Amino acid sequence: MGIMEKMRLDGKKIFVTGGARGIGKSIALGVAEAGADVAIVDLDIEEAKKTAQQLAAETGRKFIAVQADVTQPDQVEQMIATILEQFDRIDAAFCNAGICINAPAEEMTFEQWKKVIDINLTGVFLTAQAAGKVMIRQGGGSIITTASMSGHIVNYPQPQCAYNASKAGVILLTKSLAVEWALKGVRVNSISPGYIGTELISNSPFLVPLIKQWEEMTPVRRLGRPDELQAIAVYLAGDASKFTTGSDFVIDGAFTCV
Ligand code: NAD
């Protein structure tokens, strides 16, 4: 089989958490273009439904919208049951939902800390665990987590210790699962984006004024676009990456190099 054939995802069943907007939406579009049917999982079901309709119209592929809060084990189990009713199997799972709260460490409240860790780290564990159980039963699958370059470096100048800690946790959680499930046919990798222009940034009055500074700090002198993560997502979801597990892919316009 040639490489372009291996990059196809025809017939694959995939879910993306946080798929209603931003990076998750772009990943959903990318894997659908490569042939997959996709479940858009999000807390925000109205936006998830709109996204599913829009992407179905654009690609002609099957999209379903499923509401779940990834921090709640019972909702994650229900989400998996709903996806299996529609799709029968799960070939790839993108554990992507995440938030950022910026606050100086000495002022961060317990609730702020807990919210970031619950969604970004515990939520990734719960969705990866639930997807992993299905994939072990099936005899294989691919799990892709969204970490961040903030799991590798301390961003400057904004204070975000909980976010950084959660993303470092995602990277080592991903490697741990890859090792545990290596002989069960389940591959687990993470994508660590640099600054990408999404609502996570544009909705934050704290982050928007920093965009110009980040552009100057990035060797390629711009933020990334969500569609620039599609190729790695398609690669990791399918057979082209069969020997790739336990890896973290930093895609950041060389931000972390300097
Ligand atoms: P976004 O805010 O545009 O989208 C995040 C989506 O996640 C939203 O649709 C939201 O409703 C959903 N979500 C939030 N909490 C949830 C929960 N508890 N359960 C289910 N869904 C939930 O954000 P984005 O920029 O697309 O970020 C996606 C991922 O990429 C996050 O993990 C983020 O940390 C990571 N990331 C983003 C950047 C960036 O610069 N934008 C950089 C590195 C990593």
From TrEMBL:
GO molecular function list: oxidoreductase activity, acting on the CH-OH group of donors, NAD or NADP as acceptor
Keyword Oxidoreductase assigned: yes
One Pfam family this sequence matches: adh_short_C2
Organism: Thermoclostridium caenicola
Lineage: Bacteria, Bacillati, Bacillota, Clostridia, Eubacteriales
Superkingdom, taxonomy of origin: Bacteria
Name of protein: NAD(P)-dependent dehydrogenase, short-chain alcohol dehydrogenase family
Keyword Metal-binding on entry: no
Keyword terms of this UniProt record: Oxidoreductase
Family: Belongs to the short-chain dehydrogenases/reductases (SDR) family.
GO BP terms, alphabetized: carbohydrate metabolic process
